[in-house]
What we know:
The protein has one domain: 3-Layer(aba) Sandwich (Aminopeptidase). The protein has a 6-stranded mixed beta sheet with strand order 2-1-3-8-4-7, with helices on both faces. Strands 5-6 form a two-stranded antiparallel sheet. It has helices at about 20-35, 50-65, 120-130, 145-160, 175-215, and strands spanning about 5-10, 40-45, 70-75, 80-85, 85-90, 115, 135-140, 165-170. By secondary structure, the protein is of the alpha/beta class. The longest helix has about 40 residues, at about 175-215.
Amino acid sequence: MEQKKTVIVTGFEPFGEHAVNASWVAVQELEKLGLGHDINLHVAEVPVEYQAVQSLLPSLWKQHLPQLVVHVGVSGMATTVTLEQCGHNQGYMRLDNCSFCPKSRCCLEGGPDCIHSVIDMDTVCKRLNSSGLGVSVSVSKDAGRYLCDYTYYKSLFLGEGRSAFVHVPPLGKPYSAEQLAQALRAVILEMLELMEHNKGNSLLDSRVHAHLKTSVS
């Protein structure tokens, strides 16, 4: 019997002009929908605080040993559900909800400037936009150098790329919480399928290499 997959999905608490944070509202709606009986879904609300992220994320990865962690954030500029391809290490100047900012202006001293997700967001985006989802999906390579980008980088580092970040627009601009939750569900299932497919391919590649090696020797 195949073991259940574990997926963690997070949203953020309110901050700035976002007195209600669409990301956490959408994630709570997603929790009601679930990801199907063969996937354990854990949700968590992330504080908009650099230091809280530094301690919360390692414990989430360690406690649940997820196949995938998807962070959801709100962007006042977004009009689509936006898939972020990478997280950035440097350039964190904005104060958080505790009026704190890392002195180093970075997430991980000595870490790579940018870490990419193992998931090809362009592929996920194309598949969803041709699926009749009713919600537009786009791809971005700049998560904004605030808590969203900071969280994503930290998670990509901890999970060796097995993480994703999704920016959603504020509620009603243009999508409802239910529409956003449906879109998140479709996005996550597509990501898992792609990861499974790629895992199959890499296994195949290693078998082919092994076969070639033995043939040659």
